[in-house]
Amino acid sequence: MTGLAWGLRLAAFAYALVVVGAQAPPSRPSRVISLIPAVTEVLFAIGAGDQVVGVSSFDTYPPEAAKKTRVGALLNPDFERILSLKPDLVVVYVSQTDLIARLQRVGVPTFVYRHAGLADVSTTISSLGQRVGRATESARLARDVQTNLEGVRRSVIGRPRPRVALIFGRDAGTLRNMFVSAGVGFLHDLVETAGGQNAFADVKRESMQVSSEAMLARAPEVIIETHQSSWDTSATAREQAVWRTLPALPAVRMNRVYMVADDRLFIPGPRVVDAARILAGIIHPGVESAK
Amino acid sequence: MSVESPLRRRVPVVVLSFVGMLIAVFAAPFVGSTPLSIANVFSTSQPFADNVDAQIFFLARLPRTLAAAMVGGVLAAAGVVFQGLLQNPLASPYTLGVSAGAALGAMIAITFGAAWPIGGSAGASLAGAGIAVLVVYALATARHRGLSTTVLLLSGVTLNAFFSALILFVQYLSNFADTFRALRWLMGNLDVAGYAPLLAALPFVVGSLAAFAWLARPLNLLSLGEEAATSRGLDTRRAQRVAFFSGSVATGAAVSVGGPIGFVGIIVPHLVRLVVGADHRVVLPASMFFGAAFLVGCDVVARTIMSPLELPVGIITAVIGGPFFLWLLLRRR
Hints:
The complex is a heterodimer of chains A (about 290) and B (about 325).
Chain A: H1 2-21, E1 32-34, H2 37-45, E2 52-55, H3 63-66, E3 69-70, H4 79-84, E4 89-93, H5 97-105, E5 110-113, H6 119-131, H7 135-155, E6 163-169, E7 178-181, H8 186-193, E8 197-198, E9 207-210, H9 212-218, E10 222-226, H10 233-241, H11 250-253, E11 257-260, H12 272-283
Parallel strand pairs in A: 1-2, 1-4, 2-3, 4-5, 6-8, 6-10, 10-11
Antiparallel strand pairs in A: 6-7, 7-9
Chain B: H1 7-27, H2 38-41, H3 52-86, H4 98-111, H5 120-142, H6 149-173, H7 176-186, H8 196-222, H9 226-231, H10 236-258, H11 264-276, H12 280-304, H13 313-332
Helix pairs in contact in B: 1-12, 3-8, 3-10, 3-11, 3-12, 4-5, 4-6, 4-7, 4-10, 5-6, 5-10, 8-10, 8-12, 11-12, 11-13, 12-13
């Protein structure tokens, strides 16, 4: 009995070796779970939406994605629910090592996603597309994203590049506890693509806390502050006015403090092109970004 | 039998610590992560709204230095008061749950942000501290006439644990950026970005410091034991009540300005007692001045050592305070 079982396993292993060795096209998974909003957007954009059976708790786009079963996210993946959907591919974050190990133990294949810079968006699109059997569509989308980003870059070329501070968190009603995008990562790349010069580019981290002294010393000419979309206009105006406590900031003097509520700025998926256009429109008003 | 020391020993120590604080407060604004032209800072030829050097000096560094002095002085003095009230050398301003209540308030304000418009996280932390104080007081007086220090201690410790659990719950509900900022608040931050937070805390601070001044003698008597203190004519219940409320209000105000910065309220009083003995008429003012100087110094380190990044000041006080405290424990044995 045991001998037979081992023999079968060996045969399966040999078969797998042959298949992989022959570079046969991988079969198209039909029950994909994505724990990453950016990946979900990619899957729908390359026509693999029908193959998706589960998404993360934070997914809102496209609207069809919001109808899929939610299975948790980075910190709280619901392992039972993931298994109950009988997935044949789960896309996970690289840091979800426990989840990867558990899925491996039950034989569910994974695709490991790394959050990185803007240039990695198209790379992720192509490799993900290949993995889900949509190589042609994903290659086209990756190319489009690249071309369109290049278009944004070209539309602002030759223009003066103002120093930009992109702020994605601070205490309400005061300039305390400010966090900005520093010189590494997706947000930094977006600012530079949109024709800005990140005021904190020399700090090689994704984000940093900024004191009022550092903000005055870096003297950003444009301040872009992201906030929750739940704010009403009076709250937005109130928070914008808080900046007047530091009148020497060029951005304050030139009235160039912008409040933006848009989740496209935070999701490194196919809509990064929109994000880049939004930022380019803020940093260089009146510039028509190339379509 | 008495802890009191003669006047000629008391005065020089207090004067010396006061001078130390003055030096720290005057020197600190001239140090920072950005090189400043001092001539420019005090120049009147340029309008203030355009003068970056002056704004860095007067809007960033000076309020920050004053905040460090206020928070450090208040926490150290409150530490003395709580150690005297609880008759426990390990007591700190945070022992009775004030800081945990303040932290919970701040967490809620940070997580639900714009939905909490009044006073921002500072106002919310003050409210949280107030609730914690009232709960602890109600518990400690519920079944005793007067204040039971044992019940006070136990209910404070329990409330600390309970509020910490609620903090975790609030953090679980919040998104990444908010969680990060909330965590950062817990590490302490004296970058107050203006004078408004200081002015808001000032009435609480002045009120409790006045109470502290009155408390010096009662705390001396209490250190002889409650019975001995009563026999010498002290209304111990009243003294305990004043100590509890003034210490708590002072702590709440300090935490609302700088976050729960650790160790200042415990190492400074011990260090001062090491030098001058146990007389609260010296220990209280000297701790306040030395605590102010100490935190001003720690904040200078925090904002320059890794510039342009800033190290949370609570990490500096902990790195200095932890080992020092262990040394103190070993030395006492």
